[in-house]
Amino acid sequence: MSSLALFVEVILPLPLAGTFTYRVPRNLEDEVAVGKRVVVQFGRKKLYTGIIADRHDRPPTSYQAKYLEELLDDEPVVFGHQLAFWNWIREYYLCHLGDAMQAALPSGLKLSSESRLAIHPDYAGETDELSEEEMDILEALQNNTFLTLDDIGGLIRKTHIHATVRSLVAKQIVVQYEELQHKFKPKTEVIYRLADWLEDKSKMAELFDALGRAPKQLEALMQFIQSSKTGKEKGVVKRQVLISDNGISAAAVDQLVKKEILVKSELEVSRLIDTDAWATEDIVLTAEQQKVFDELNVLFDSKGAALLHGVTSSGKTEIYIQLIQEHISQGGQVLYMLPEIALTAQIIQRLQKHFGDKVGIYHSKMSDNERVEVWKKQLSHEPYDVVLGARSSLFLPFKKLGLIILDEEHEHTFKQHDPAPRYHARDAAAYLCKQHEAKLLLGSATPSIEAYFNGKKGRIGLVHLSERYGGVQLPHIEISDLRSERKAESMKGPFSSQLLQRINETLLRRQQVIIFQNRRGYSSFVQCNGCGWVPDCINCDISLTYHKYSNDLRCHYCGHADKVPHVCPNCQSTYLKTKGFGTEQVEEELALHFPSAVVARMDMDTTRGKHAYTRIISDFEEKRIDILVGTQMVTKGLDFDHVGLVGILNADALLNYPDFRSFERAYRLWRRVSERVGPQRGVVATGIRSQPLHCKTRWCLRVIRACTSRVGAAQAVPVSLYCA
After folding, report:
1. How far apart are CA 556 and CA 559, in angstroms?
2. Secondary structure of 425-467 in the HEC alphabet?
């Protein structure tokens, strides 16, 4: 051990510049290492979990270094190359190192102290000079030993209480403590073993005779012995198997434990999906797929990165699977990234059929405990060979990363907008590949302009896959002019007569329908017909969307919600009308027009649950849903065999978004939702709204052609015009 004092640089999950120097206690000097977590005091009282970024013997010059409070890990939880990646994130996206740490680590690996309040032991009980809010807090504490700030806020139904609490602490009426909160809790199961003294066969025989007067306990013991011989771990039986699966009385088992016949204990188990039952199967590429596969390998050797531009249903996933198989057979790991959690439901099943339990999943819909378990699995000696995840999966600890596949690379959801770091997964993946000397594959049917430009300029490889699998044709597109429909008064709500006719014909053929409306909620806003007043968000100053299901008004930016007003606060009029329509209203109207059809909705409101995506997609695949109404979720990478029609409502509204990419994104959404039509060559009906000065329909055709050339589509989209 060195005679010099040892110091460490610690990264804290706070938006502050740089690292912070702490002194290492003598008893921990041999144990501290880069990448391990430590508990440190920051400020006067707060405790945080930090990551050791460096160790040295240089004391800080501007302040007295505090000692580390605790070392949490025996082995590092963050690798050195991950810290270098965080530093690149900090420099490239102009954020703090703590922001990168906050985004990278699951919450369960980040501990922080939580303020707990109690009545000061020397408080005598005087209340003469206390305000009403101080009295409320004091009364809440008198009925509880300890309370957190959140607890107190909930009890007194107020949110801004920090100033009042500080006042009570200054008056020595309340004392504040800090307690370190451990967020990750291992999942455990109760198991039973046979007591050691029953290894003697003579004593076992005596026990059977003694239990003759307790038939329920004897039955439980016999069932335990039978189950202990058939389980994965011999001699051990889980409580659920013994009681729930075999119908044994819980009271009988508890009596066996009380008599020391069975020994009860807890076993830590994984929350992750058990895929042992999945079979591994091989795939056979078509001639064109094999040609593209060979071209990609050549481009990987020369450029390290490539863009696979393949039309929808051309078999890009099969090529991905073949590349994954090649890399893991060489001992490398693969990261398969998707822009939406909704897509994992289909993709994970396809990957598990080929790679079994070698596949792991990582995204924000998983519980924090599950994400911690995936992180620890990647640190173990048997990590996942393939990880399927959203943009946050870039931060996982990979030991031997060989390939990153960024599917649907054009999607804007690969960009983190808030909070910092505001990184783009495509650019971050390129740097990560450079770190690991890995390959990067971008895939899309409608590539982003910048990716396609880089491919054309030769900065990355570019490969085209232009034939749909099985020779399936792209869908025929019909454009419905809503001006003439309105003049003829043939519109029925948001639907043209042409679209309703196509839906009816499709349902009669026992095929399915997808209706695309890129706006959730029931109505876009509520307006007073007397004075024109529209309720706005108090935070964002934009109109609130009406949601009929929950009967409230919501802001789709910050989540603020208000009750639906019955009277206009501006003019006291009761004549309030909803304007515009969203997926809720479309779903309701379709159920009225087609009462015998099963109509379902897929948007942010119906997919908030952990398994909601999977349930809706599964029901649609198995034809339990006839018409699926959805936002842009239904456009992204989902493959359905029985869809005969896709309807796009108010298609030209996408062109008018206040975004310089609105034309590009409008084309992309039209193209991708149209290609959800199955192999029977369906029809896509798009509604064009009325415009007084020029024919919007012809403009849309020009936009489709312009965007097709801009993003390098493999073939033009066939369009039939129905325009006066």
Report:
1. 6
2. HHHHHHHHHHHHCCEEEEEECCCCHHHHHHHHCCCCEEEEECC
Q: Which CATH class is domain 112-181?
A: mainly alpha
Topology match between the domains 7-109 and 287-470: no
Q: What is the pTM of this model?
A: 0.70
Please enumerate in sequence order all residues whose Cβ is within 8 A of that of 294, keeping only pairs 6 or more positions apart, or say none: none
* DSSP track, 470-523: GGPPPPEEEEEEHHHHHHTT--BTTB-HHHHHHHHHHHHTT-EEEEE-S--SSB
DSSP state of 469: G
Nearest one of 398, 388, 386 to 436, comparing CA atoms:
398
| Strand partners for 359 | 386
| Segment 182-223, tens digit of pLDDT | 555 666 777 888 887 777 777 777 777 777 778 888 888 888
pLDDT in tens, 280-298: 566 788 889 999 999 999 9
Residue 458 in contact with residue 137, Cβ under 8 Å?
no
The neighbour count for residue 510, using CB atoms within 10 Å, is: 10
Domain map of the chain by residue range?
A: 7-109, 112-181, 196-260, 287-470, 473-520+583-722, 523-580
The fold for domain 287-470 equals Rossmann fold (3.40.50)
- Consecutive 10-residue runs of the chain (724 residues): their mean pLDDT? 80 92 93 93 84 94 90 93 97 95 89 74 75 83 76 72 77 73 65 78 75 81 78 72 76 84 74 50 82 94 94 85 94 92 70 86 82 92 92 94 94 88 95 96 91 93 84 72 80 86 91 88 90 89 88 87 90 89 91 93 81 82 91 71 83 75 78 64 50 39 40 33 28
Give yes or no for a contact between 542 and 557, defined as CB atoms under 8 angstroms apart. Answer: yes
**C-alpha span between 406 and 429 (Å, rounded):** 8
> What percentage of the chain carries pLDDT values higher than 70?
84
Q: Which residues, at least 6 apart from 221, have a Cβ–Cβ distance to it below 8 Å?
A: 207, 208, 211, 256, 261, 262
CA distances from 534 to 531, 540, 580 (A): 9, 14, 13
Residue 22 structure tokens:
């702490």
- Give the domain 473-520+583-722 fold: Rossmann fold (3.40.50)
Provide the token pair at 11: 């990264």
Considering just the CA atoms, what is the radius of gyration of the chain in Å? 31
Model pLDDT, residue 603:
87
User: Per residue in 291-305, is it b (16+ CB within 10 Å) or e — as a string?
Assistant: ebbebbeebbeebbb
Q: Which helix (H) or strand (E) holds 54?
A: strand 46-56
Query: Which CATH topology does 7-109 take?
Result: GIY-YIG endonuclease (3.40.1440)
Quote the CA–CA distance of 703 and 707 in Å, as a whole number.
Answer: 6
**Which of 714, 708, 635, 633 has the alpha carbon at shortest distance from 672?**
635
Residues 411 and 16: their CA atoms lie apart, in Å, by: 31
Residue 710: what pLDDT?
Answer: 34
